[in-house]
Amino acid sequence: MQQVTRRLRRDPAPSRAAYRMHRLWLTPVFRKLLRVGLPAFALTMAFGIYLSDDARRGALGDTLASLTRSVQERPEFMVTLMAVDGASEPLAAAIRNLALVEFPASSFTLDLEAMRSRIETIDAVKSAELRIRSGGVLQIDVTEREPAIVWRSAQGLYLLGESGHRIAGLTVRDARPDLALIAGDGADAAVPEALALIAAAGPIAGRVRGLVRMGERRWDLVLDREQRIQLPEEDPVAALERVIALDQAEDILERDLTVVDMRNMQRPTLRLSGAALELLRGGKPAAATRLAAAPPAVN
Hints:
By secondary structure, the protein is α/β, with parallel strands linked by helices. It has two domains: 75-144, Ubiquitin-like (UB roll) (Roll); 149-292, Cell division protein FtsQ/DivIB (Rossmann fold), CATH 3.40.50. The protein has nine helices and 14 strands. It has helices spanning 16-25, 28-51, 54-72, 89-99, 112-119, 191-200, 236-250, 274-282, 285-292, and strands at 78-79, 81-85, 105-106, 125-133, 137-144, 149-153, 156-160, 166-170, 180-183, 208-214, 218-223, 227-230, 257-261, 269-272. The chain has a nine-stranded mixed β-sheet with strand order 8-7-6-9-10-11-12-13-14. Strands 2-5-4 form a three-stranded mixed β-sheet. Strands 1-3 form a two-stranded antiparallel sheet. A hairpin with a 2-residue loop joins strand 6 and strand 7. Helix 6 (191-200) runs parallel beside helix 7. The radius of gyration is 43 Å and the shape is elongated.
């Protein structure tokens, strides 16, 4: 009997596992995971195993530090000079001392913002700008505060800016005769008002000796011959202008007065000197004539 062997035909359909793998490969996330994620994971694992040894980590750190220094200390990145512009010589010397920079220094190690903050703590510095110029120069451009007035306080004499900011100490008043003088507690907090009063006192500027802050709320304008103009807390400039107008019309400040009290704008008051009072009480004609010339609006 002849045995006939039949060949089994191969089924072209994929197996269930092959079908699922094919469908999974068509998923974008799965492809990225195999192409990117798996190699990255392998590299991370290898790097982690390498760095698990302390000696290897130390050697790698030293190598990286050496490379960093070699780049930072290249000649084109080194700063060798400092230039300070816009400041007087004493202020420039103070800025150089406060900058705390040892040359040569790498530009990568200089904290310009911290240096600017330190420089602006100097009273005489209004603002500062720092940059590294070509040629390895640390450029510091300074805007210096201009003194506007002299303040006599319990601690001594100080130069103040137009906003009242303290600029520097002063040894003697004669060192700045071009600036007006203010005195009293709280006077430094009212410098803008004081400057406005000094400007308003222009017609009698030759007689003005200074301003005194009274009770930290109002001003007395001090004149020569021991005369004072007591100004109100509210609108002192208008009160001073009124006194100057009366003086220009009636010469009241040329008389034997010690105080012109303008604290009550509705009722200004004149205080006579001791000699004028004695003459008035004695009834002498010269005194009567002088006092009779006073303006009737002043009591």
